[in-house]
Amino acid sequence: MATFHTMSYCLGCLLIVCACIYYFWELFQQKSSVDLIHQPAFWVCSGLLFFYSCTFPLYGLTKLMESLPKVILVNLFNIFILLNIFLYLSFTIAFLCRLKTRKSMS
User: How far, in Å, CA of 102 to CA of 92, rounded?
Assistant: First the structure.
C-alpha cells in the first residue's frame, strides 16, 4: 500500500520556504539596486516560495482530505495542476533570463 509521508513533505516545505525567505531577505538588504527581471535566482525562488507555501497546507492535510466529496477533490487536483504550471513557468522564465540575444546588424 502506497502512503504519502506528510511529515517529511511538511519538513521539506518549511526548509525550502525558509531558504527562499532568506534569499529575499539578503536580496533586499543589498545596498545597490538589482534588476530582478534578469535575475534567474529571483524567478526560481519566487516559484518555489509560491508553490510550497500554497501546497504546504493542502498536501499536509491529505490524510484528512480522503473523506471529502469527489467534487472537492477534483477541484483540489485542478489547483495542484495550476500551482505546478506556475512553478514550471517560473523555472522557464529563469532559464530564459540567462539567454543572451544578439541584435541583428541590418
Answer: 20
How far is the first Cα of the chain from the last one, in angstroms, to the nearest whole number? 64
Highest-confidence segment of 7-11, 25-29, 36-40, 99-103: 25-29
- Report how far residue 53's alpha carbon sits from residue 17's, in angstroms, rounded to the nearest whole number: 7
Higher per-residue confidence, 67 vs 24: 24
CB atoms within 10 A of CB 80: 15
CA separation for the pair 63, 43 (Å, rounded): 32
- Please give the Cα distance from 86 to 70 (Å, whole number): 25
Report the percentage of the chain scoring pLDDT > 90: 51
Please say whether the beta carbons of 16 and 52 come within 8 A.
yes
Q: For the whole model, what pTM was predicted?
A: 0.83
